[in-house]
Design goal:
heterodimer, A: alpha/beta, D-Maltodextrin-Binding Protein, domain 2, 4-stranded mixed beta sheet, globular, B: mainly alpha, 78% helix
Chain lengths: 334, 284
């Protein structure tokens, strides 16, 4: 016991002694990111640090900060000096331009694919054997089917699901706005629990055993099936769904102050490299690199992906749906 | 608190702390720094939006429904705590049994535990597949993801307020009064009603009030067990968060200002009422 303790202390002291001088000289990069990307960026940071060292001979320290991306954006607006943001909502990056003037309005044009190195879509997770026979958006509003999704008011994840459902309803009912509204109204009515975030809904569905269908990111449903092999959950990817982008950008004002511009830009550009794209695909995200996408074709079924432009015209219009008194409030009013 | 207040008002009394002016100054300074400043900021922000916009935000049907749900559940939770908390304090003060100290220490756990942990644990226990949820489901009671779940979470996080305010008062109540009453033939109920309750009453109300005020603003514990169905089980702190998510800071401040004002008024009312009842009890 004592020996273990003392050797532990020695190891700790050694670790501190070794870490201290290195971090004193290293340049630091702060990545402000969304909640469930902790493991993803921990892996990517290792990859990037090796790449940067090889390219420039410089060793760098990368710090991560993770929380709901709206909360993260608020922190930056209030002065957190993050060098780069890697979010799961375009609107949370837009706000940095609109409210904070920290980045130019056309930030999305600075990197390929709308500055979104990877993307995902919204899918369904059902229980073993798919007892309710869920195959499409239509099946979700059948009587007796209980849905679990987060709250569109507090979660980007849920807003994407709502937009996906809206896109589907627009295709199905065309110009019949009343039918579209009725469909969306039914869908919301079938939701049993509105958790405040995506992970909360996962817990409700998996651990509490509530609901027949969980509506969340394709990447999340694939993670769940991998984490709970004995539950035999099944993934259902509908024919039509939403293209959920994961925007990244450099915070111009902050990198200028921190002297990290070159590093920050390289950090984000490297996300498009084949090795990074392969890593991202390993975390169940869809990627743009053709070779990597082909390698993983069996894991990502073909789906018609609708962007926000096709469904609502723009993010600005889309957010009006979810604002106070907007479409969502009208549908949920009773 | 009462003792301090009276020692300040009677100027002839000897002060325990030297340098009354200095100590009052320092405490007022810190109070201003940690309490008054943020509150003022909140009200300024809410005031900046104008009366009409303010009213528009707080009279939104969904917000009103959340106010109703929050007040009713907080009321139920604090009433439950008034009964259970007094019982708990009674057991801790008047009986000595093995494990009493442990129980006493456990009483503060809801304060020490991160509220999110409390909420997740309660949701796990009361969900239909949880330990309590299974048993309750058999008799047809659903707790998790209903307003009942909100009450459970609020009661759990705020019960120490009642226990810890009643406990010292109970310790000071002389056991002789009860014994005298009993020896004169009073029943247990009469002793409780005529001897104990008048002395405990102010402490119970204070504890209950604190418990209510805390429950009004509870977020972490409630959110995991509430189910958050619009108009049914959404609490007001969720409405504040929703406005924050929309980057609508004035609206968030407006709702928060209403909650804060309610809490402040309640605490002030209790304080005034308590001072009066103490004067009545001890003859000014």
């Amino acid at each position: 016991m004592t020996r273990t303790t003392s050797s532990l202390i020695t190891a700790l002291a050694l670790a501190i002694a070794l870490a201290a001088p290195a971090s004193a000289q290293d340049r630091e990069l702060l990545n402000s990111s969304y909640d469930i990307a902790r493991e993803l960026f921990a892996d990517y940071n290792t990859l990037f640090k090796a790449h940067w060292q090889e390219q420039t001979g410089e060793s760098v320290t990368i710090r991560q900060s993770h929380a709901g991306s709206s909360k993260q954006a608020r922190a930056i607006l209030q002065g957190l000096e993050a060098d780069v943001v890697t979010y799961n909502q375009v609107t949370d990056v837009n706000i940095l331009a609109e409210r904070g003037n920290l980045i130019p309005e056309d930030w999305a044009d600075r990197l390929p694919n709308n500055s979104s190195p990877y993307y995902s879509t919204m899918a369904f997770l059902v229980r073993e054997g798919n007892p309710e026979g869920i195959e499409s958006w239509d099946d979700l509003v059948r009587d007796g089917v209980d849905l679990i999704m987060p709250n569109p008011k507090t979660s980007g994840n849920a807003r994407y699901t709502f937009l996906a459902a809206m896109g589907y309803a627009q295709q199905r009912f065309g110009d019949d706005q009343a039918a579209i509204d009725a469909y969306l109204n039914d869908l919301l009515d079938q939701v049993q629990v509105f958790d405040s975030g995506g992970r909360g809904s996962t817990t409700t569905f998996v651990e509490r055993g509530l609901g027949d269908v969980l509506l969340t990111f394709e990447s999340e449903v694939n993670n769940i099936t991998a984490l709970h092999p004995d539950e035999n959950f099944q993934v259902v990817v509908p024919e039509v769904s939403f293209r959920a982008e994961f925007p990244v950008t450099v915070i111009d004002d902050n990198v200028e102050a921190n002297g990290t511009g070159d590093l920050a830009r390289a950090y984000l550009e490297h996300l498009y490299s084949p090795e990074a794209q392969r890593l991202l695909a390993g975390f169940n995200y869809r990627v743009h690199d053709d070779a990597v996408q082909a390698e993983n074709a069996d894991r990502f079924p073909a789906v018609e992906l609708l962007g926000v432009e096709a469904i609502a015209g723009s993010w600005e219009n889309a957010m009006e749906i979810f604002a106070s008194g907007g479409k969502l409030d009208q549908l949920q009013r009773r | 608190m009462q003792a301090e207040a009276s020692s300040i008002s009677s100027s002839a009394a000897k002060r325990v702390l030297p340098g009354f002016g200095l100590s009052l100054g320092v405490s007022l300074f810190f109070l201003a720094l940690v309490v008054l400043l943020p509150i003022t900021g909140l009200f300024i922000r809410a005031a900046g939006m104008g009366w009409e916009a303010f009213w528009f935000v707080i009279s939104d049907p969904r917000v009103v429904a959340a106010f109703r749900v929050t007040v009713l559940t907080a009321l139920a939770a604090s009433l439950f705590n008034c009964v259970f908390g007094v019982l708990m304090a009674w057991v801790l003060v008047r009986y000595s049994f093995p494990g009493r100290r442990l129980l006493d220490a456990l009483m503060d756990l809801p304060f020490a535990l991160p509220t999110a942990v409390a909420g997740i644990t309660l949701a796990a226990l009361f969900a239909e597949n949880g330990w309590y949820g299974q048993a309750l489901a058999r008799v047809g009671i659903e707790v998790a993801y209903t307003p009942l779940g909100i009450i459970v979470a609020m009661a759990f996080t705020s019960v120490p307020f009642v226990v810890r305010t009643v406990q010292p008062v109970l310790e000071d109540l002389p056991g002789e009064d009860e014994e005298a009453a009993m020896s004169l033939g009073a029943s247990d109920l009469t002793v409780f009603r005529r001897i104990l309750l008048p002395g405990l009453w102010p402490a119970i109300v204070t504890g209950g009030g604190l418990s209510f005020a805390r429950s009004l603003g509870e977020y972490g514990a409630v959110i995991f067990i509430a189910g958050n169905s619009p108009y049914i089980s959404e609490v007001i702190s969720l409405m504040i968060l929703v406005r924050l998510e929309e980057y609508d800071f004035p609206a968030a401040s407006a709702i928060a200002a209403v909650v804060l004002s309610a809490s402040l008024l309640l605490l002030l009312a209790i304080s005034v009422w308590q001072e009066r009842s103490v004067k009545r009890l001890h003859g000014a």
